[in-house]
C-alpha cells in the first residue's frame, strides 16, 4: 500500500467546512469524490485538522492509502483536473507508512485578516473581517503577548469542543499591517475549536478599548471562569501551514 500526502489550498466560502457532514457539501467530500474518480475506488482522506464553514486554507495537509502505484503527478495535476476551481492540490508526495497528518503534526500556522478601511470592500469580503472602528494596535500587541506560551485556553473554545485537555502551547501571535489590512499570525502546537477566532475577537475588543490588554492575562489565570471576546467571523481565517 502507498500512503499519499497532499497539501491542499482551498477557498472555503462555498463549503460547510472540511469534514463531511449532513448539512452541506464539505471540502473533504469533494476531494474524496475526485480521488474516487481518479482511482476508480472509494477513498477515505484523513486531514491534519478541521476548518469550519467559510474558513480557508493555503496548506491543509491530508493523506490517504492506495494500492495503485501512480506517479505523483497523477495526484497533483491529474487530481486538479477533477477538482473545482476553489480547491487545488499544491503538492503530492509519498509519505512513510503509518503517516498521520493529524497526530504527526508538530504545529500549525493560522492567519486572520482584518480590513480596517472606512468602507467595506466587496472584492475581499470573503477573506476579511471588516472592522470600521480605529484599533489600538499597541494595546492589541500587549494583549497578544499574554497569549504566547503554554496556557489553559478553556476560555477560548466554543461549546461542543471535545478536546480532552484545554492546555495548548502558542509560539507566536504577531500583528502586521499591509495597507488597510491587519494580519494576525498565530503559530502553536495545536488549537481548540474556534480558538484562533476567539483569540482574535478578544484582541479586537482590546483594540476597541472594551477590555484592557492585561485582562487577557486574567483569562488564563481563571480558565473557563471568565469570558473571552466574541468569535471572529470565519471568512477572515486561513490555515497557512502545518509543520512536521
TrEMBL record:
<feature type="domain" description="Pseudouridine synthase I TruA alpha/beta">
    <location>
        <begin position="144"/>
        <end position="244"/>
    </location>
</feature>
<keyword id="KW-0819">tRNA processing</keyword>
<feature type="domain" description="Pseudouridine synthase I TruA alpha/beta">
    <location>
        <begin position="9"/>
        <end position="104"/>
    </location>
</feature>
<dbReference type="GO" id="GO:0031119">
    <property type="term" value="P:tRNA pseudouridine synthesis"/>
</dbReference>
<dbReference type="GO" id="GO:0003723">
    <property type="term" value="F:RNA binding"/>
</dbReference>
<keyword id="KW-0413">Isomerase</keyword>
<comment type="similarity">
    <text>Belongs to the tRNA pseudouridine synthase TruA family.</text>
</comment>
<dbReference type="InterPro" id="IPR020094">
    <property type="entry name" value="TruA/RsuA/RluB/E/F_N"/>
</dbReference>
<feature type="active site" description="Nucleophile">
    <location>
        <position position="52"/>
    </location>
</feature>
<dbReference type="Pfam" id="PF01416">
    <property type="entry name" value="PseudoU_synth_1"/>
</dbReference>
<dbReference type="InterPro" id="IPR020103">
    <property type="entry name" value="PsdUridine_synth_cat_dom_sf"/>
</dbReference>
<feature type="binding site">
    <location>
        <position position="110"/>
    </location>
    <ligand>
        <name>substrate</name>
    </ligand>
</feature>
<dbReference type="GO" id="GO:0160147">
    <property type="term" value="F:tRNA pseudouridine(38-40) synthase activity"/>
</dbReference>
<comment type="subunit">
    <text>Homodimer.</text>
</comment>
<dbReference type="InterPro" id="IPR020095">
    <property type="entry name" value="PsdUridine_synth_TruA_C"/>
</dbReference>
<comment type="function">
    <text>Formation of pseudouridine at positions 38, 39 and 40 in the anticodon stem and loop of transfer RNAs.</text>
</comment>
<dbReference type="InterPro" id="IPR020097">
    <property type="entry name" value="PsdUridine_synth_TruA_a/b_dom"/>
</dbReference>
<dbReference type="InterPro" id="IPR001406">
    <property type="entry name" value="PsdUridine_synth_TruA"/>
</dbReference>
<protein>
    <recommendedName>
        <fullName>tRNA pseudouridine synthase A</fullName>
        <ecNumber>5.4.99.12</ecNumber>
    </recommendedName>
</protein>
Amino acid at each position: 500500500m502507498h500512503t499519499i500526502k497532499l497539501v491542499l489550498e482551498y477557498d472555503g466560502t462555498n463549503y460547510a467546512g472540511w469534514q463531511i457532514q449532513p448539512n452541506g457539501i464539505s471540502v473533504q467530500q469533494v476531494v474524496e469524490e475526485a480521488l474516487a474518480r481518479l482511482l476508480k475506488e472509494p477513498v477515505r482522506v484523513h486531514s491534519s485538522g478541521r476548518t469550519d464553514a467559510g474558513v480557508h486554507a493555503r496548506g491543509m495537509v491530508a493523506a490517504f492509502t492506495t494500492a495503485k502505484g501512480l506517479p505523483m503527478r497523477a495526484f497533483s495535476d491529474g487530481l486538479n483536473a477533477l477538482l473545482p476551481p476553489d480547491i487545488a492540490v499544491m503538492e503530492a508526495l509519498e509519505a512513510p507508512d503509518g503517516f498521520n497528518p493529524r497526530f504527526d503534526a508538530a504545529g500549525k500556522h493560522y492567519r486572520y485578516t482584518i480590513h480596517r478601511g472606512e468602507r467595506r470592500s466587496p472584492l475581499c469580503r470573503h477573506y476579511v473581517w471588516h472592522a470600521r472602528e480605529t484599533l489600538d494596535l499597541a494595546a492589541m500587541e500587549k494583549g497578544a503577548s499574554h497569549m504566547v506560551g503554554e496556557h489553559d485556553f478553556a476560555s477560548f473554545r466554543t461549546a461542543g469542543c471535545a478536546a480532552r485537555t484545554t492546555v495548548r502551547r502558542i509560539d507566536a501571535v504577531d500583528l502586521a499591517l499591509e495597507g488597510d489590512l491587519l494580519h494576525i499570525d498565530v503559530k502553536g502546537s495545536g488549537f481548540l475549536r474556534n480558538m484562533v477566532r476567539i483569540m482574535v475577537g478578544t484582541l479586537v475588543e482590546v483594540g476597541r478599548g472594551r477590555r484592557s490588554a492585561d485582562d487577557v492575562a486574567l483569562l488564563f489565570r481563571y480558565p473557563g471562569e471568565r469570558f473571552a471576546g466574541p468569535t471572529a467571523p470565519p471568512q477572515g481565517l486561513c490555515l497557512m501551514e502545518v509543520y512536521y
